[in-house]
Design a protein that fits this description.
This protein is an alpha+beta fold. The protein is 51% helix and 19% strand.
Length: 134
């Protein structure tokens, strides 16, 4: 870990800017007591987990639930739509679709077409996906 120090001075400003999905910049300036302006730019690149991966856990939970074909197809259609939204970079829409999948699973459990335990496994995987999507 490196100490990046502080800007110091009387008039200090800093901004956080995102530069793509994995890069963040902190841009700042300060005016010292003598009137000199100092500038700083830090660029941080992070390797973030692929947000599509949590959808794989949902798919595995759906397959393990041994649902009737029509119900399984409906869940996979919602999951595929979420995956397409992620591919387009539209995480908000993907999150809404995963939430819709949770609603579908809850309806299947309420109607006794899916037992509680595998239903909860799907919901847990879906909630992890929502958390990963931010």
């Amino acid at each position: 870990m490196h100490d990046l120090g502080t800007l110091g001075g009387q008039d200090v400003t800093a901004q956080l800017r995102t530069q793509g999905m994995n890069m963040v910049q902190v841009v700042g300036r300060s005016v010292t007591a003598s009137g000199a302006t100092q500038a700083v730019l830090w660029t941080v690149t992070a390797v973030l987990p692929d947000p599509v991966d949590p959808l794989d856990a949902i798919a595995a939970a759906i397959e393990a639930a041994s649902l009737p074909t029509g119900n399984e197809r409906g869940l996979f259609a919602t999951l595929d739509a979420a995956s397409q939204q992620i591919s387009r970079g539209n995480h908000a829409a993907a999150t809404q679709l995963v939430q819709a999948l949770i609603n579908q699973v809850e309806a299947l459990v309420r109607s006794a077409r899916l037992s509680a335990e595998p239903g909860q496994a799907i919901i847990d995987a879906a909630q992890a996906a929502i958390a990963a999507l931010g």
